[in-house]
């Protein structure tokens, strides 16, 4: 699953991967985290930057939960996502990237993905 996340995140312009002090794979743009993944006692965990409206919507779904410690800032997590969830997760990861990216990259992204 980490390979899926890595492939999605690193395909985004100027995104980099960093291993944080807790051993989590953290994906950043311009020094700002937008996705954090790692292993827990329950398995693979994926957390992503969100806004409060999206967070509230996702928390109503069965598999999503507020990310410990940073959930108050809109972060959402999912553990051991099923294959069918990846289409939605790709969109959520891209949205997380756009929330953290500088305006010039957001503009470039929007120009490339309009139509």
UniProtKB/TrEMBL annotation:
The keyword Cell wall biogenesis/degradation does not apply. Keywords: DNA-binding. It holds the Pfam family YjbR. One of its GO terms (molecular function) is DNA binding. InterPro entries: YjbR-like_sf, YjbR/MT2646/Rv2570-like. This is MmcQ/YjbR family DNA-binding protein. The keyword Oxidoreductase does not apply. It comes from Fictibacillus barbaricus. It comes from the Bacteria.
